[in-house]
Amino acid sequence: MSGVSRRKLLGLGAAGVAAAGASVAGAKMLLDEPAPMPVSAVSALDSVAFYGEHQAGIATPAQDRLHFAAFDVITTKRSELDALLQEWTAAAARMTQGQEAGTFGAVGGVPEAPPDDTGEALGLPASGLTLTIGFGASLFDGRFGLAGRKPAALRDLPRFPGDALLPELSGGDLCVQACANDPQVAVHAIRNLARIGFGRVSARYSQLGFGRTSSTSRAQATPRNLMGFKDGTANLKLEDTAMLRDHLWVAEKDGPAWMRGGTYLVTRKIRMHIETWDRTSLAEQEAIFGRDKGEGAPLGLAKEFDEPDFAKKGPDGAPLIGEVAHVRLAHPSSNGGARLLRRGYNYVDGSDGLGRLDAGLFFMSYQRDPHRQFVPVQRALAKNDVLNEYIKHISSGLFAIPPGVRDAGDYWGRALFA
């Protein structure tokens, strides 16, 4: 069945079944379609399973495109926020399986009423779409009676040396990360969630990203950032089950109970001074990163995945990988064993009034405890990394990512409101 007919039929027929509580996989079986692919096997066009112990879009093999959005909740009624999360979950479950956002879709409803879907993804396959929600610290103020349920790990990040954060591009009550292999599919998903949330949430900021800058599976090649270097070589991978348990997923003892199986997301928009970097010699670029630019190997070694040898010295007796090289400062051995799962993306937001590219990295990392993992790594980088001469952190966010939606009777954040 083609992508066109699948979206149309599911939007106008089996959509009602899904909305009434049937699982997405069950709805697809009614049309003799295969169930969603597991995250370890998803292709560029397949759908990713929405239901599960953990939210998709975290350890899922990183897709090529991003649309990230942060929202402020503008209703003051807890019941309206709870209802919104239920509506968002239902729409997300549908869209991640290649369906339209609402029961009647873009063209199947009452002509005199607004459509249930904006329509720009009609005819497109699911494209590996994942939607991942998070709750910011500001959601736990006095508005909704949630203050007593705020996780201890959701306290504010410290201010790091060199930060030039823009408040309007930071924080947020809610965030939604849409990743897909087609930018139109990702944009469509965020657009429809914003449409559904009208009157209850307002968009605080959003960010488009392209060209993932990390691999989250051993089946993926390591990508390059806009500085031309391979990025995320030592990233946690979905195949690293034991390390994901230790470094990614919130355990029962971490508390609170509603976060068990969840994680924490840190976002940082990092603008690169592209023109200055492009005038820097290759030798200096490699010394700053501590890796060669071609293969991505640690200096003094041959292969990308060779473990860095920080004791190895050059002919002059100095370490081949300098004391302030990026790879040394960010390495787990320099940070008490702290590891992150990174899902960053390149961005280019046009150019500024001086003709310089407004470009860089939208950094995203997931971790079990940001204050024990992200904070020490970033503190070391902010203090000593020579790369800071070429970058500027302009936004920051921290969000509690709840566990996955178990089935069609569950919804994002249900345990939080229980």
Can I get a quick summary?
The chain is an alpha+beta fold and 418 residues long.
Can you offer a commentary on this structure?
With about 425 residues, this protein is α+β, with helices and mostly antiparallel strands. The protein has helices spanning about 5-20, 25-30, 80-95, 185-195, 240-245, 275-280, 280-290, 325-330, 375-385, 415; strands spanning about 65-75, 130-135, 175-180, 200-210, 265-270, 340, 345-350, 355-365, 390-400. The protein has ten helices and nine strands. It has an eight-stranded antiparallel β-barrel with strand order 1-3-2-9-5-8-7-4. Strand 7 (about 345-350) and strand 8 form a beta hairpin. Helix 1 (about 5-20) packs across helix 2 (about 25-30) and helix 3 (about 80-95) runs antiparallel to helix 4 (about 185-195). The longest helix has 18 residues, at about 80-95. It is globular, with a radius of gyration of 22 Å. The two termini are about 40 Å apart.
Keywords:
23% helix, single chain, 418 residues, alpha+beta, eight-stranded antiparallel β-barrel
- Share of residues in strands: 15-25%
- C-alpha termini separation: 41 Å
Low-confidence stretches: 1-34
Instruction: Summarize the amount of helix as a percent range.
Output: 10-25%
Q: Which structural class should the secondary elements be placed in? A: alpha+beta
Following the backbone from N to C, one meets helices and strands in this order, namely: HHEHEEHEHEHHHEEEHEH
Largest sheet: 8 strands, antiparallel, barrel
Backbone shape: globular
Q: Biggest sheet, strands in spatial order?
A: 1-3-2-9-5-8-7-4
The overall strand count is 9
Mean of all residue-level pLDDT scores: 90
The radius of gyration over CA amounts to: 22 Å
Overall domain count: 1
Tally of DSSP helical segments: 10
Protein name: Deferrochelatase
Catalytic activity: heme b + 2 H(+) = protoporphyrin IX + Fe(2+)
Signal peptide: 1-27
Subcellular location: Cell envelope
